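Hi V.,

You were right to ask for the full record rather than a summary. Here it is.
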Amino acid sequence: MSFKVEVLEEKKNELINRAELQFRIDHFGKGTPNRLEVKKKIAAMKNANEKLTIIRKMRTHYGSAYTTGKVNIYEDSKDLHLYEPFHIQVRNLDAEKRKEIYRLKKRKEPFKHLFELE
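Predicted structure:
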């Protein structure tokens, strides 16, 4: 799916050591883009590491042809683990890894190696 990402606002949060962006995607006549596709596109636009780019929120209003959202781009994986909730980190992975993480977590087995942030 081809779509254009427009950055509405960008600020650098020095305290947390991350860049915070607000974006808008116009997708007239098409469905809402996949979270992972948006993540790849924004990481490529900002020359950032895709694994340290977290889509925090995506929202499409009913009946509209655009999506707005927030992205956090971290410089360090330790900061990402510290400030992003577990469910947001998992939501930014592909479907297979999400299933595996939730399966291992349910069994109370180690799963942190599946995040592959280092």
